[in-house]
Amino acid sequence: MEAASLPLAASRFLSPPATAPSCSRPRSLPFVRAAPKALEARDVPKTLPTSRRRSAVAEVKAATDPVAALTRLENVLKTQDCNIILRHYGEIRRWDMLSKVFGWMQKHDMLNIASYSSYFKYLGLSRNAAKVLQVYGAIQDKSTRVHVSVCNSVLGCLVKNGRSDSTFKLYDEMIREGLSPDLFTYSTLLSGCMKLKQGYAKAMELINELKSRGLQMDSVIYGTLLAICASHNYCEEAEVYFQKLKDEGHTPNLFHYSSLLNAYSENSYYEKAELLMKDLRSSGLTPNKVMLTTLLKVYSKGGLFDKAKELLIELEASGFAQDEMPYCILIDALAKGGKTWEATMLFNDMKGKGVKSDGYAFSIMISALHRGGYREEAKKLAKEFEDQNATYDLVMLNTSLRAYCNTNDTESVMRMLKKMDELNISPDHITFNTLIRYFCKAKVYHLAYKTIEDMHTKGHQLNEELCSEIMVQLGEAGFPSEAFSVYNMMRYSKRTVCKSLHEKVLGILVPAGLLKDAYIVIKDNSDMISPRSLENFAGQFMISGNINLINDVMKALNHSGWRISQDIFGRAIQRYIQKPDKKQLLFCLLDWMTGQGYSVDSSSRNLLLKNAQLFGQKQLIAEILSKQQAASRITGQRTKMFID
Predict the structure, then answer these.
(1) What is the DSSP string of 180-235?
(2) What is the C-alpha separation between 65 and 272, in angstroms, rounded?
(3) Alpha-carbon span 273 to 266, nearest angstrom
(4) Which of 18, 164, 185, 556 sits a CA distance of 20 to 30 A from 194?
């Protein structure tokens, strides 16, 4: 586990709120937990004995129906007593009882700042951020809504549940309403920057805001900043903050050292990492499992395999290699470094020592064997894991699925899909692409198509290169409609597709006679299609396309900048002569041609005059053709003058 995944600030999400907005904050856990008592001091009763209230609290805790017990003891209990009960159900993770007790307190007007703070904190632990927002949004009293302790609990809940974007939006609203943030607030917000895409930039904004409010950075803020730098690969900035931490008189702890070491691991700065470890030991600290594992990653990523192996032995001797993670780091580095045999030896050594694997080490080795061309060995390892384990995660399932697909083991592939359903694991884009390739390779095109359709329906981004290949193969296999459907899935996704895709789908639709669909492709993308493909489509459409769309097709082709040939017009005129009831469309076409500078050739002219009686408009046709001929002469003279 990397140090960056263990920010100290995270521990604050579990701490009860501070007494009031302030620039200072608790420095030890006992002091923090005492804070709610200070908030509730004004509610201390003057008449009832403390022992009677204490007994009432114990009675409610022991009751099978705490709400009924609260109602029975309502005249004995005070708000601070109810808060003790509320926190009790939070600590024992009885989320249903927690909400029932809070609901009772709300109904009987027995809530204070500590009540809201505690409730929001435990809702965060129960992963119920939506409920937090609902209850917070319903608070009418402005002083409660902007109380720093309440706001910190709400923001902490959102951060803990991975809703960083919502956290910062809500924080802005809180500021507008009058929140005066403290260091706890900024520490919470900084923790939310950890996984933001632009997290470092956002962290700098918060630091500047913190300083503008007259607050001073403490060791916890520095620790969170170091973790942010490490998670966003800002190694030099991490070094600067680590030095500032020392310069301001703070003593670095294991978390600070671990975060800086993690920053070094991303770039394999093993020399800096060794100096940092030396500094840590000279300060009297002893490196823990996280630090030694991170150092192992530094050596492994840097290709210092001998040092990595020595450190792994040290981890084993210290009892820090009882899980698979240290082995996985070195196995992965060896495999990616082309040392598949050494990786296999270490993997077998790990199994021989009885180290429990959750599948990560198996996944790494199966992938390594596959990359090395050892597909049968990869399949055997996947089967070994399957025989020994009933549960899978998505990564291991995808790895096993690929091993079975690449060895054409249909039975095992179907078994993996069944297991996915049984374990209620949702496929990701890797799962879908693996299956699409497999079904296509096996020439089970209907399953390949259904998988693409399912992938698109579930909102995954389609792999254009793969789907384009499948589209062509569907067309060649006699499934042009399905090929066009795949085209549309790619065409109307959020990304811009390659220009050649339109040419490819036209090459499927036109020979298959799906000319209306081909027309849609032409109309939307005519500027991206070659003249040769346009002419091929136009010729086919004039012969067998929907006669009612001929004029629209002509306009779309002309709009593309392609000059329509007289042969194409001749084919259209022949279609219209075969359907005298479409004479109005014929007249519209002839008029449009004149306006665009087109004219029919002598063969089409003679054909029209010969069959003019079919349309009952012989004089009109003759006039239109005369206008075309006159316009054609003028155009020809202009062209000759231009050439001369």
Answers:
(1) ---HHHHHHHHHHTTT-TTHHHHHHHHHHHHHHTT----HHHHHHHHHHHHHTT-H
(2) 60
(3) 11
(4) 18
Report the Cα 537 to chain-centroid distance in Å. 41
Round to whole Å and give the CA distance between 214 and 441: 65
Helix (H, G, I), strand (E, B) or coil at 356: strand
User: Would you call 627 helix, strand, or coil by DSSP?
Assistant: helix
| Rounded-to-integer distance, Cα 156 and Cα 451, Å | 40
Phi, psi values for residue 471, rounded to 5°:
-60, -45
**Token pair for 554:** 């002509």
**Tell me: the pLDDT tens digits for 440-486?**
888 888 899 999 999 998 888 888 888 888 999 999 989 999 999 99
Number of Cβ within a 10 Å radius of residue 409 = 17
pLDDT of amino acid 438: 93
Q: How far apart are CA 644 and CA 636, in angstroms?
A: 12
Residues 6+ apart with CB under 8 A from 106: none
Distance of alpha carbon 499 from alpha carbon 87, whole angstroms: 62
Percent of the chain as helix, strand, coil, to the nearest 5: 75, 0, 25
At 93, is the secondary structure helix, strand, or coil?
coil
Exposed e or buried b for every residue in 280-315, given b needs 16+ CB within 10 A? Answer: beeeebebebbbbbbbbbbbbbbbbbebbbebbeeb
- The pLDDT, as a whole number, for residue 376 is 94
CB 445 within 8 A of CB 439: yes
Residue 424, class by beta-carbon neighbours within 10 Å (0-12 exposed, 13-18 middle, 19+ buried)? exposed
Distances (CA, A) of 458 to 426, 432, 455, 560: 10, 11, 5, 35
What residues contact residue 224 under an 8 Å CB cut-off, 6+ apart? 7, 8, 9, 187, 190, 191
Report, as an integer, the average pLDDT of 113-136: 91
The answer to whether the CB of 295 falls within 8 A of the CB of 273 is yes
Rounded Cα distance between 29 and 52, Å, is 29
Q: What is the pTM assigned to this prediction? A: 0.68
Number of Cβ atoms within 10 Å of the Cβ of 527: 11
pLDDT at residue 629 is higher than 80: no
| Residue pair 153/17 in contact by the 8 Å Cβ criterion | yes
Between CA 459 and CA 464, with CA 462 as vertex, the angle to 5 degrees is 160
CA distances from 591 to 96, 401, 444, 594, 628 (A): 77, 63, 51, 5, 9
374: three-class secondary structure by DSSP: coil
**pLDDT value for 164:** 83
Residue 323 pairs in a beta bridge with 356
Nearest alpha carbon to residue 227 among 199, 248, 269, 208: 199
Convert the pLDDT of each residue in 328-341 to its tens digit: 999 999 999 989 99
- Measured CA to CA in angstroms, residue 109 lies from 59, 115, 330, 485 at distances of 21, 11, 59, 60
Alpha carbon dihedral 68, 72, 76, 81, in 10-degree steps, equals: 0
CA distance 15 to 590: 83
